[in-house]
Write a structure and sequence with these properties.
Blueprint: H1 9-17, H2 23-41, E1 44-47, H3 49-64, E2 76-80, H4 107-114, E3 118-123, H5 157-164, E4 170-175, H6 181-187, E5 190-193, E6 213-218, H7 221-231, H8 249-256, E7 266-270, H9 282-297, E8 301-305, H10 313-328, H11 350-361, H12 364-377, H13 383-404, E9 409-413, H14 429-433, H15 440-445, E10 449-456, E11 463-469, H16 475-493
Parallel strand pairs: 2-3, 2-4, 7-8, 7-9
Antiparallel strand pairs: 1-3, 4-6, 5-6, 5-10, 9-11, 10-11
Helix pairs in contact: 2-3, 7-8, 8-16, 10-12, 10-13
Bound molecules: glutamine.
The site of glutamine has 13 residues, from loops.
Length: about 525
Amino acid sequence: MSDLTRLGAAELADRLAASEISSEEATRAHLERIAAADRDVHAFLHVASERAIETARAVDALRSSGESLGPLAGVPIAIKDVLCTHDMPSTSGSRILEGWVPPYDATVVRRLREAHLIPLGKTNMDEFAMGSSTEHSAFGPTRNPWDLERTPGGSGGGSAAAVAAFEAPLALGSDTGGSIRQPAALTGTVGVKPTYGGVSRYGAIALASSLDQVGPVSRSILDAALLHDVIAGHDPLDSTSIPDVWPSMADAARVGQRDDALRGLRIGVVKEIAGGGDGFQPGVRQRFDETVQLLGAAGAEIVEVSAPSFEYAVAAYYLILPAEASSNLARFDSVRFGLRVPPESGPVTVERVMAATRDAGFGAEVKRRIILGTYALSAGYYDAYYGSAQKVRTLIQRDFQAAFSQAHVLISPAAPTTAFGLGEKVDDPLAMYLNDLTTIPANLAGVPGLALPMGLAPEDGLPVGLQLMAPAREDARLYTVGAAVERLLEGEWGHRLLSRAPRLAQTEMFANEEGAV
Ligand code: GLN
């Protein structure tokens, strides 16, 4: 096994650009790593080995012909299975789409290909992105590379675990309530939910259309920024895509790597989600408090801000999300996509085939949310439930506005706990829902959020995540501040978290490997 898998995307890209290594070598190294590690981790639902090598060779040929290529050309990437790929199955973690190969690529996937990244395969996820542990996948859970008995978070546990286990330097995720940021927190990786409308949703299998955003997963802020630059930008195929021309997020991250990048920055600690409430693990709170102190000592001005409506964010989200999901998932009707199951007995009518298919094809969590959503939208209850939830959403947006009038960025823990055990919360929907306590407000308001590692919790030695949030359209600010915070915390805790890390290092997966840590 080559230690090419230990390099980040930016470092790989530099070596590729200097022709010190080929994309084929980089791709093979990651495919070998997947072959060694993924039996245990199960980050991937589909690995496209041959096609990846072919694509890498083609990119190497382009480079040797002198073609000028984008900054991430030749770098391998894993893709969450929520995204449509014309050459790989796209199941969204559901039995109902098992084996379905879409006729087209999601816009973000098309952009990856145009930028000459190398798709390695599709990553595991909770079914239709409903969940916080990847245990709701119809194809079995993903395990956390730091401790194989724990979950990597969810719904994008596959993308986060692939990056944490060095199976890919980069991945794409999707974040409706936290599915990029919470798994990042639980695996010690970086994950970004862009401003709503900043990245195209075209070809992303919809969960809740007013909340969904696609975003990058990586092991460093600069790597996430480089990927953000590839996927962002207006898409006429997505009616909610905003027409902004974005500044370079990679340049923004590089600004943050300079000395003194934190001086004069006003950072708002959001009282309601700062770790004081129920459900926060003491070690998460401790790391967060230390981080706030370090930021102050580095020249940032720390202000406490209050966002009283955040208290109702999870409740509002679990009305809005099921309402939108129940409508989006109506397309899985046994006629147009995937699975078709005839009724066990009796007449074969369209309705009965549809019912039998949806019964067999959807898992329990998906059914729970469809029922909740159709109920919340039903004539007699619409105002009481959906209408009230939308009002709360407006209050949350106002809280953000007020908070951003006092601070350039807001911070909180990215998740209330470190990685929890497989099976620990899977039968307790409410406990599962509370994992997104700190991430959901950003989705409801459409503002960008970024999760990055802030050391390990003293009680269990597992990664703790910090969340940064910025006003809508200020994604570049997140990368500047994120890079500055990353540098500060690495200096303080003396490690680039993952190079030291996963407990996988102690298992046979890394046995006989050079560069094992
Ligand atoms: N865990 C949240 C949920 O179950 C978030 C999901 C997501 O962001 N896709 O809805």
